[in-house]
Amino acid sequence: MRLNLKAVLLLLTVAVVVITCAVYMRCAEFIFPRDLVRHWDPKLYAVGGGLDLLNTNNIEGDGGGGGGSSDNSVPLQDIKCLINQEYTINCKRDEEAHEIYVPFSFLRTYFDISGSMSNPSSPQTLEAMNNDVLAGGGGGVAEPQFLWMHSTAKINLPKAKYDARGLFMYFENYNVEARDRVKCISAAEGVPISTQWEKRGYFYPTQIAQFALSHYSKNLTEPAPRINILENADDVRNTWQIPKGSNLSRIWHPKFNSTVIQYETGADFDSAITLNNINQAMDLVLSVDLLLITNSSSLLVTIENHETKRTYRVHYIPADLLLSVQDDNIYYGLGGTQTLNKWRHLTRDLHIDVQKGLALESPKKSSLANKVKRSDLRVVSIAFMGIGFFDNVSLSTSNHLAHFYDAAEWFISHQDLRTGGWPNPVRRSLNGFAELKPGWLSAMGQGHAISVLARAYWHSGDKRYLRAATLGLKPYRVLSKDGGVLAQFMDKYNWYEEYPTTPASFVLNGFIYSLLGLYDLNTTAPSFIAKEAGKLFDQGMLSLKKMLLLYDTGSGTSYDLRHLSLGVAPNLARWDYHATHVNQLLLLATIDSDPIIAQTAERWKGYMFGKRAKHN
Predict the structure, then answer these.
(1) Rounded to an integer, what distance in angstroms lies between the CA atom of residue 390 and that of residue 333?
(2) CA distance linking residue 384 with residue 387, whole number of Å
(3) For residue 128, is pLDDT > 80?
(4) ∠ Cα 308 310 312 (to 5°)
(5) How far apart are CA 580 and CA 584, in angstroms?
(6) Tens digits of per-residue pLDDT, 449-493?
């Protein structure tokens, strides 16, 4: 048979192609190993762009616990995600699972959420392990988890019915004096100096009241303080270093019916009467009864950071000065010449005084860079200079009631007796509203102040506090345009304005705080005063119930009602303000059984976990 050469070559070619295809199909893994295929690198999508949140050691492990090896991972493709036809971002596609992976760094901003990798010792991880054990799981080593949080704000569930004589909301958790927007605690008044709206510092009634209420609440929740009495001139007498030319004597004081210390020194440090070798750590709250006679008189406390070995000299001097720093010397003014020849009780948190001095010394540094730990400080010595008297020197872990009463006294001495208000001495601008001029009153400030004074009256029985609280009701009856805090919604519902704007802004959290002040006075004052406070409270509660749902956005809350007053977009509450709304309603639900309060609080709480109102 004669063979056709062309046919043979064609058959051989087809055979080679078939064999080659068969080998390729069965041996693709050999020809193109997996490590030549690009895999999704999870580090590219670490939250915030850092490697600390997505721990690659956990992800690229040996197959045990959290995450398998890269040999078992599914190849992911780089793709572009087109967002709302406006812009693109880098995403990943899993073709086999029909899934798209979007970077959390994008989701976080787009949906206003938070997230981080879990810490094996964090409460959330430990709780998850416990739940796994209870469910019959193995427990053991915690697997790495990504903690997705719709909101990081905290809900504080009331433990009992709200009591005007007890804790104020959850303010025992507040540390007002440590806030960055607090310049210092005034040595002349014993209350915070705010820089929130003016850098030079001013007295902000709302902040001062929060300072007082936090310390009142801490006094009820914290253990009794440890008190180290250094000198009381009677049964506790210490050995003071008295340089040549200086004098110290213990004399009977008829006003106090006790013995006090009289001293006289030169104006320089070397002549100071000093109590050395105190070496007191943690007990950093100084208390002393003090009377200075001359402008050159002062109190000096030397404090050491035992970690850095840096020494700070904190001076309390008779001067119209808030705070000044020169090298390692920190100066606080006790007031001008009008404060001389007058006894005063001075309570100072030395840790805060050093901290605020460091912040003023290096204002360009971050707040964290200026922080010094309380446990790192120790009191080395206490000294007096000039001419004066002192008594009852002590160091303690805390003195919450002293701070509380310093603030209560401030509200008595700084109340406008004509209006009954505590004016705010700075301008305040809110977008879209007319600027508030210095001297404006705040219903939130009024309510907070009344809450302070009501507790001071109940705790002490001093009727000065009751009179000031009663006078503080007056702005509740005066329209905002006339200098008060009263506004009306739809010419029908009375509303007490945190910011007395034109037109009315109807800020929710400040209004509820103003109601709590009324409730506090209503439940602590004699009946003839309680009746007036109760009437204002009832009017406000009626307005709250009728207007509350105007703040509900279906996924959060509005901070105010400017979308109705100004006809603009809603001013959505940040999650921390939204949490405040929820906490306030939960508290009100303990004193008012109307279901709209508790039901709204529960729905708003759900928004913090991603729940939303249903569509139509």
Answers:
(1) 17
(2) 8
(3) no
(4) 140
(5) 6
(6) 999 999 999 999 999 999 999 999 999 999 999 999 999 999 999
Q: Which one, of 381, 407, 291, lies nearest residue 341 by Cα?
A: 291
d(CA 92, CA 99): 9
Cα separation, 596 vs 616, whole angstroms = 22
97: how many CB neighbours lie within 10 A of its CB? 10
* Pairing status of strand 329-333 against strand 311-317: parallel
H/E run at residue 461: none
Instruction: Determine the Cα–Cα distance for residues 63 and 71; give it in Å rounded to an integer.
Output: 10
Query: Which of 207, 219, 209, 205 shows the shortest CA–CA distance to 172?
Result: 219
Amino acid, single-letter form, for residue 393? V
Of 218, 172, 442, nearest in space to 450 by CA: 442
- pLDDT band of 142, cuts 50, 70, 90: low
CA 376/CA 358 separation, integer angstroms: 14
| Sign of the C-alpha dihedral computed for residues 316, 317, 318 and 320 taken in this order | negative
Residue 469 is predicted with a pLDDT of: 98
CB 506 within 8 A of CB 523: no
Prediction pTM value: 0.84
Please state, in angstroms and rounded to a whole number, the distance separating the CA atoms of residues 188 and 320. 8
Q: What span, in angstroms and rounded, lies between the C-alpha atoms of 325 and 332?
A: 9
Confirm if 196 and 182 have CB atoms less than 8 A apart. no
CA distance 414 to 425: 12
Residue of 427, 386, 397, 401 whose CA lies nearest to 286: 397
What would the pLDDT profile of 339-354 be if each residue is shown by its tens digit? 999 999 999 999 999 9
Percent with pLDDT over 90 in the chain? 76
From the list 425, 379, 401, the residue with the least C-alpha distance to 228 is 379
Cα 393 from Cα 149, distance rounded (Å):
49
Rg for the chain (alpha carbons), in Å?
A: 34
Q: Token digits for 98?
A: 């029909």
Task: From residue 75, give the alpha-carbon distance in Å to each of 55, 228, 483.
Answer: 20, 67, 69
Model pLDDT for residues 490-521, shown as the tens digit of each residue: 999 999 999 999 999 999 999 999 999 999 99
Both tokens assigned to 520: 């506090």
Q: Nearest CA to 559 among 511, 592, 597, 517?
A: 511
pLDDT score, position 65:
40
Q: Are 288 and 402 in contact (CB under 8 A)?
A: no
The DSSP 8-state label assigned to residue 433 in this structure reads S
With vertex at residue 11, the alpha carbon angle to CA 5 and CA 12, rounded to the nearest 5 degrees, is 90
Tens digit of each residue's pLDDT (9 = 90 or more) over 227-248: 999 999 999 999 999 999 999 9
Q: What's the half-sphere exposure (Cβ side, CA atoms, 13 Å) at 258?
A: 14
Pairing of strands 387-396, 285-292: antiparallel
